[in-house]
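Entry 0007
Protein: Flavin reductase
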Amino acid sequence: MRLDASDLNPEQTYRLMSGIVVPRPIAWISTLSPAGGVNLAPFSCYTFVSNTPPMVGVNIGRKAGVRKDTASNILAHGHFVVNIGDESLLDAIHASAEEHPPEISEAELLGLAVLPGETIATPRLADAPISLECRYHSVTPFGATGAEFFVGEVLRFHIRDGLLQDGKIDTTLLRPVCRIGGPNYASLGPIVTKRAIRQTAKSLMPSETP
Ligand SMILES: Cc1cc2nc3c(=O)[nH]c(=O)nc-3n(C[C@H](O)[C@H](O)[C@H](O)COP(=O)(O)O)c2cc1C
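Output (structure tokens):
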């Protein structure tokens, strides 16, 4: 079967793309609302874009042309937290996608405890095994629906005790969840370990070397 991208409307293209680019990790983003409440929503168009400094990126669409609360709050305050939920938090992750007016705090509504930010004013989720305190870096618009790719620099990593072994996250202990098409999620399947392929060590660009 062949599909021409130009024959598809935004809803059809979204359905297709979100079923093709799978599985997607979920950035569970907390931001401060204009009234100071903790806004919370999941975003699975998410990845990391740099390791030095560490930077993450997330694509935030619009609701009928209007920025989502998360996007408006990031632009207004200049910071946000990417929380990583585990299997035990899946119902709350899903429920936090419900559309609410900006003054409603999804964290409060769902009874999720928060902890104050340490390097930024935005609080993080107390029960998340990992939270990344981020400072807004840039936003790039893409396409005709007003979607925007937000990039933030990670200033502090909060990692639950025991999850970090020799500088690496123990993925089995983390029990991450991912999104597939529609309201469907998956957890970690069997881990298959292959021969390690030697990679040139990560280094700074010559122009950045002190
Ligand atoms: C698991 C999951 C992943 C999602 N990923 C995205 C995404 O990557 N980008 C996006 O714009 N919306 C995504 N959404 C929809 C938003 O979470 C939803 O629009 C939410 O209401 C936004 O909340 P806000 O207005 O408080 O920012 C996702 C929803 C779910 C359930």
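Curator remark: The mean pLDDT is 97. The helical segments are 10-20, 69-77, 90-95, 106-109, 171-174.
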